[in-house]
Amino acid sequence: MTRKFTLFLASMLIAFTAEATMPMIGTTTTDEQPANLAFVESEDEGFWWGASFDMASNYIWRGFDQPYCGGNRNMFDPALQPGVSFGYGNFYIDLWANRSLISTYTEFDIFLGYEKDNLTITLYDVLWGVSEDMSTMNPLKGENHSLTATIDYTFFDRLRLHWATTFIHSGDKLINGKQAYSSYFEVAYTHPVCDLFDLELTAGATPWSGPFWCFEREGSGYSDNYAKGFNVTNLSLMGLKDFELGDFTIPVKAGYIFNPMTKFHYVLVQTGIAF
């Protein structure tokens, strides 16, 4: 058993063996981008909507700082992240965007989702590098798109399992030219601390070679510079707290992220407003 796999199993063991008898105070978030819309709760029937605007010290996704395409060259790159959600019953559409202020990295995502009790299923399209060339908005023509399906299930309102697989992406190819179906799975455990805030421990990894998103430390090529096989990419410890202000919610998240594959460390601070 490799050292990387042992490290990942140890992180999951901590999550699975932790006490799971008390209800969670706040909300948990997945690795996927619209975490700032997690405050919206599905209703059994009727139309609902929600909106938010977040500010983050960096755009970290699955253990990588996204603006640098896996090169991980900057610890601090403030990002503005607005989002809006529209739903009917248990079905919803999320629109989410990112604008990094130093790297000028841009991204626009569209999510179609279904949420029922502890189960959430989504299908989403990611468009990055949005520019004046509107041809990139067409997923059939643009090369800056990826289509991914995810499934989440939460046990005891505390222990969340997450799986994501990419089915369409122009660069999601192995060296032999076959479709890679780049994937990511994650285990997250959330525990209340003295009724003050939630503490979330997360461990995430790519189960097999993932040329779409899981890059080696140096360079940014897809076809010949991706990590091979199983790799742990995301170990994080976050403090989460939602402050209520009338009809508004002010979510605050702060903590530490370590990517064992690239050996990079991050401190993330994120806050915003939601209604």
Write the layout of secondary structure elements.
Elements lengths: L2 H15 L29 E10 L3 E2 L2 E2 L13 E10 L2 E10 L5 E11 L2 E10 L16 E11 L3 E11 L13 E11 L3 E10 L24 E15 L2 E12 L4 E11 L1
Number of domains: 1
What is the element string, with H for helices and E for strands? Answer: HEEEEEEEEEEEEEE
Assess the beta-strand content as a share of residues. Answer: over 45%
Shape category? globular
Q: Would you state the CATH class?
A: Mainly Beta
Which architecture does the CATH hierarchy give at level 2? Beta Barrel
Mean pLDDT: 80
User: What helical percentage do the residues reach?
Assistant: under 10%
Q: Which fold name fills CATH's third level, the topology?
A: Porin
Question: How would you describe the overall organization of this protein?
Answer:
The protein has about 280 residues and is mainly β. The chain is about 5% helix and about 50% strand. It has a single domain, classed as monomeric porin ompg (Porin, Beta Barrel). The protein is built from one helix and 14 strands. The termini are far apart. Residues about 5-30, about 40-45, about 130-135 and about 220-225 have low confidence and may be disordered.
Task: Tag the structure with descriptive keywords.
two-stranded antiparallel sheet; Porin; 1 helix; 275 residues; mainly beta
In short:
With 275 residues, the chain is mainly beta. 5% of the residues lie in helices and 49% in strands. The chain has one helix at 3-17, and strands spanning 47-56, 60-61, 64-65, 79-88, 91-100, 106-116, 119-128, 145-155, 159-169, 183-193, 197-206, 231-245, 248-259, 264-274.
